[in-house]
Specification:
Elements: E1 10-15, H1 21-29, E2 47-53, E3 57-63, H2 71-83, E4 90-96, H3 102-113, E5 118-123, H4 132-142, E6 146-148, H5 158-167, E7 188-192, H6 206-217, E8 221-225, H7 230-237, E9 243-246, H8 251-257, E10 264-266, H9 267-275, H10 278-284, E11 296-300, H11 312-325, E12 330-334, E13 349-352, H12 360-372, E14 377-379, H13 380-387, H14 391-410
Length: 411
Amino acid sequence: MKKSKEQKPHIGIYGRRNRGKSSIINKLAGQNIAIVSQTAGTTTDPVRKSFEITGFGPVILIDTAGIDDTGELGKQRIDKTLETVKHIDLAIIVISENKFGNYETALIKEFKRFDCPFFIIHNKTDKEKLTKELKTKLAKEYRAKIVEFSALQSEDAEQIVNAIVKTIPESSYKINSMLGGLISYGDIVLLITPIDIEAPAGRMILPQVQAIRDILDNDAIAIVLKEREVDAFLRKTKIKPALAITDSQIFKKADASIPDDIPLTGFSVVLARLKGNFDEFLQGTPAISKLKNNDKVLLLESCTHHVSCDDIGRVKIPRWITNFTGKNIIYEVVSGLDKIQRPINEYALVVQCGGCMITNKQLKNRLREAIEAGVPVTNYGMTIAYVQGIYNRAIAPFVKQKDNLYDSMII
């Protein structure tokens, strides 16, 4: 399955000003896609560049401002540079002239905080070679791979590509199965996909497309229906699907249409399991029942989109939570990967969208602060299932699978 742009591995390049970060990007890309200048501070805000690294594959490479920038604007640029660490799968530190100090150690501290692997490039070796003393020190203190390089003299970037391949986690580019373990060869999976005002004209939303492809990859059969066709389909064909997956907004209608002996879940719940925060969502979702008057609920959208009058995250979910709890709740929305401005412990609950447009690492780091602070987290689909009274049914396929796995380990 081809990954969408935002799901490609994200690689960040960091270092002080005028260390050759942009030159290295151009060398990796095999073309001049980053502005190169002898003037320190040419790169200001982080810039994302999507391209193919020969010998590795498609990536998003983030060119960042120098971590030694100065002045008030420089401080803001450094803050933006450090913010990118939350969203990358691999970091590259570029140094030169054997200069490694507080700037670099502060970067590594951030990498470790967000479980981000890294390696070091000593650039401009045509001017000054890496000393044995510094090489030994870096290897001993950080156990990081060190690449000696000259962006001006080296004909290719094979050394860097090799370091990327050896250092980047397999999970950042390996495509996991959405439904692996739930379906088998020849199983029929029913996908219930409403076509409403939020459905994009002429196409399906990404989670639906991903589900269809994953069903085919598992050698199973996908049947796609609108919600009003389900009853007639089941009655006329007598087919009993191995699994039914519905759009979360019509959970209640799907629950009424799908017989109890057919497992039913939602696209967003499937994504919650795929993205790796499922256990935290299981623990956090019931906190909806504990919300009190004037509690703040944060809704996290992972992409920017046109907001309709019946938007799922900004309109429907707040309305459903309010009706369910009967409380006066304060809702705030942060879209894309924008920084959360309010201290996270001021929220009583964080509700994350399905995250179909971001990487697993980005979603985990998006929620890390809340989880570490003990703030309950959940996602759109699990929230909708909970407030509509069908939460236990929606999570049952995955909880049962976990129990079976646990039992097999005991045996």
